[in-house]
Design goal:
Layout (H helix, E strand, L loop, with lengths): L1 H23 L4 E5 L4 E4 L1 H7 L10 H4 L8 H11 L3 E6 L5 E11 L4 E11 L1 H44 L8 H27 L1 H4 L4 E4 H11 L1 H7 L2 E6 L3 E4 L1 H17 L8 E9 L2 E7 L7 H6 L17 H11 L3 E6 L5 E8 L1
Parallel strand pairs: 7-9
Antiparallel strand pairs: 1-2, 1-5, 3-4, 4-5, 6-8, 9-10, 10-12, 11-12
Helix pairs in contact: 5-6, 5-9, 5-12, 8-10, 10-12
């Protein structure tokens, strides 16, 4: 009799300790038996999954909607059948994320799984932080791609100018001042790109791209200077029609969009003709539209599908890295805009960039 009373006291103490653990744990936790009956849950589960005392003893099938996770019963059945722990990240229908662990509850004397213990750890803040990090990494990659690509244009211009200077007759120096100005412009542009990189590396506030009210005409003149050697070399003619000129955007990004579109229009013109480019801006609904059309080689239907992919190139006969249009597409879509591409019936392509006003 004494031993029996002692066993009862031990069980009572053990049960009180278990109840105390359940009452004080901060983790939503469930005990479900092998028949999928909810046997116990911790107080945090009450607030997280809106459980009530009367739910104890109720089949999980009848209250599965409380958990807002449609495959929870299937997952429990797998653990009961296999006896193996299941760990997974889940998103509930209220868009919160949890680390869910389902552990088999084994009865040692029978060596059988008699149910499961389920814990839920809210990892929504962690997932949110990871998404912010992914966004930051993507922005860094875009910045590096833009700088690497932008520095190629002044380098190309510098190379073309030097080649032209080499071909000048000794006594024919009237073009020398213009060529020298092109050299200086290319060097200034390279210094600016490098300066921007240094600012972005050492000053976080510089890195954070800020929008400002921009006069499109000013950006266009800057781009003309950058592409001056290519324009001179090819005899390119750029016709401009600015029906709208003011836009709020990030200056560096808008400049990169325009440099890439005009540079491509010049590069992808057949060698036996001079580039003829038409640049227009106008308002369409709530968009600031930049239209760039050319008399170039155009694109096949297959090329149109992949022209905005990174490292994709329309052809290998023209120098390039296949990054330019990818950058344009990334910059435009990230700002909530879009870009379209069509071939002109008479030959050439027309790109339209839609930036939100």
């Amino acid at each position: 009799m004494h031993n029996k009373n002692k066993q009862i006291d031990n069980l009572t103490t053990l049960n009180e300790e278990l109840e105390n653990y359940f009452a004080n744990t901060i983790i939503p936790q469930l005990f479900v038996d092998k028949n999928l009956i909810l046997r116990k849950f911790t107080p945090p589960a009450m607030s997280q999954f809106k459980l009530r005392a009367e739910h104890v003893g109720v089949p999980l099938e009848e209250i599965k909607e409380n958990f807002r996770f449609p495959t929870i019963i299937d997952n429990i059945n797998i653990v009961i059948a296999t006896g193996k722990i299941l760990e997974k990240e889940i998103q509930t229908t209220d868009l919160r994320w949890f680390q869910m662990n389902i552990l088999p509850y084994r009865v040692r004397k029978d060596n059988a799984t008699n149910g499961v213990i389920i814990t839920f750890v809210d990892i929504t803040p962690r997932i949110r932080d990871l998404k912010e990090q992914e966004k930051l990494i993507a922005e860094h990659e875009l910045l590096l791609d833009t700088i690497a690509h932008d520095i190629k244009n002044p380098l190309l211009g510098l190379g073309l100018t030097i080649e032209l200077m080499k071909k000048l007759p000794e006594k024919s120096m009237e073009k020398f001042p213009v060529l020298l100005e092109n050299v200086e412009t290319s060097l200034i542009n390279m210094k600016k790109v490098i300066s921007d990189l240094i600012d972005c590396r050492w000053h976080k506030q510089k890195y954070e791209a800020t929008e400002e009210i921009i006069d499109f005409q000013n950006i266009l003149e800057d781009v003309r200077l950058t592409l001056a050697p290519q324009i001179l070399e090819t005899g390119a003619v750029i016709k401009v029609d600015l029906q709208i000129s003011e836009i709020t955007f990030v200056r560096r990004k808008l400049r990169s969009v325009l440099v890439n579109l005009l540079s491509n229009a010049i590069k992808y013109t057949p060698a036996d003709q001079s580039p003829e480019i038409s640049l227009r801006t106008y308002k369409e609904k709530n968009y600031f539209v930049i239209s760039v059309s050319d008399n170039g080689i155009g694109l096949t239907d297959e090329s149109k599908k992949s022209v905005f992919e990174k490292f994709n190139r329309v052809g290998v006969s023209v120098e390039g890295s296949g990054v330019g249009l990818y950058l344009v597409h990334t910059i435009v879509t990230a700002s909530g805009g879009k870009i379209t591409l069509d071939n002109k019936p008479e030959g050439g392509s027309i790109f339209k960039v839609y930036l939100k006003l």
